[in-house]
Each structure stands twice: as C-alpha cells, then as structure tokens.
Amino acid sequence: MTVTRFQRRPAVARLLAGRKDLLVVSGLGAPSYDVAAAGEHERNFYLWGAMGSAALVGLGLALAQPKIPVLVVTGDGEMLMGLGGLATVALRNPGNLSIVVLDNGLYGETGGQESHTSGPTDLPAVARGCGIADARTVTGEADLDALATRVHATGHGTLFARLPIDPAALPRILPPRDGVFLKNRMRGALGLAPL
C-alpha cells in the first residue's frame, strides 16, 4: 500500500478549517508552529518544554469539557516519549478526544535524527494495543477529509491518527509562549474566570 506523505502546514490547516468550538493542544516544536501557522486562536494551547505530555494534556481537557471536541496535534518524537500515556487515554476513552501525530520519522527539534517510526515502530498498532480501537494511518486525501470531519465532532471513543508528513523543515511561526497567558486565554474562551 502506498502512503501519501502530506505537506504538514496545509494538512494541519485542513484539520482546523471551519473550526467552531474545537480546543487544540499542540506538542512542542513544529506541531505548535504548524497550528500557529493555521491561525492564532484563543482555543489553542501550545506546549513548551513538556515533551511526551501532549496526549495527556488533551485527555485532561477532554475529560474536563466532555461536550467539546479536543484535538491534540503532536509529532512522532513527542508521542514516542509519551507512549505510556496512550494506556491512560484508552482507559478513559473519551469520545471527544482526537490525537493526530504528524509523523515525519525524524526528531526535528534535535537535529533531524531518525525516530523509531522510520523503523519498525507502528504508532497506530501501539495505540490499538493500549486499547484505542479507532487507531489509523491517513493514507490519502479522502482519509484526510474524513479525519478533518471527525476531529470537529465526538465519537464513541478516542481517535488516534498517524498523519505521514514530508520531512522538510519549515520556517518557525512562533505562537505565544507564556503558559499563564495561554491557560487564561483558553479559560476565557470557555467562559471561565482566570486562575
């Protein structure tokens, strides 16, 4: 089976197009730059220096806001560091949580070394092994369109999707980095008082 390698920025922009109440958590580095490049938004929460935590931050948000779809956009290196978190996600299995891994097969933030996904590691198989039933690889344009529809909705359980992307490095689009600001901005978007 031939798998398409998508251009990361247009693919992320397609996932976020037409968003209404979608909450987005992005993993450190390039996924945060990609989400910011798609448009700065008060419902974006960018992680800085929290490698391996994106799926679990998304889980917490999904459990706290069960009627609102939550999308985690992260990279293969960050997801590899947080594999144990997938077992916790599967245990709770919220239907409003989607985890999309932008997989370029590289550790982009540390010099472009090959990640485990360049070899035998199959992230959707790991997610299924942890108990996430809807775990897939996006293989073409129709799959990407279906994924873009699903991340804006809730389902019967958590969605895990590996999105193969072109490994080309792109210019950094730096979003806000102040954690307190980001937390309170998202709280405000949800109608909650700052903490």
| Poorly predicted tracts of residues | none
Count all strands and give the number.
8
The backbone outline, from C-alpha atoms, is: globular
Q: Classify the secondary structure makeup into a structural class.
A: alpha/beta
Give the distance, in angstroms, between the N- and C-terminal Cα atoms.
49 Å
- Encode the helix/strand succession as letters: HEHEHEHHEEEHEHEH
Largest sheet: 6 strands, parallel
Tally of separate helices: 8
Whole-number radius of gyration? Answer: 15 Å
Kindly report the spatial arrangement of strands forming the biggest sheet.
Answer: 2-1-3-4-8-7
- Look at the structure and give the mean pLDDT: 93
Helix percentage range:
25-40%
Strand content: 15-25%
Notes on the protein architecture:
With 195 residues, the protein is of the alpha/beta class. It is 37% helix and 17% strand. It is built from eight helices and eight strands, in the order H-E-H-E-H-E-H-H-E-E-E-H-E-H-E-H. The strands form two sheets. A six-stranded parallel β-sheet has the order 2-1-3-4-8-7, with helices on both faces. Helix 7 links the parallel strand 7 and strand 8. Helix 1 runs parallel beside helix 7 and helix 3 packs parallel to helix 5. The longest helix has 11 residues. The protein is globular and about 45 Å long. The mean pLDDT is 93.
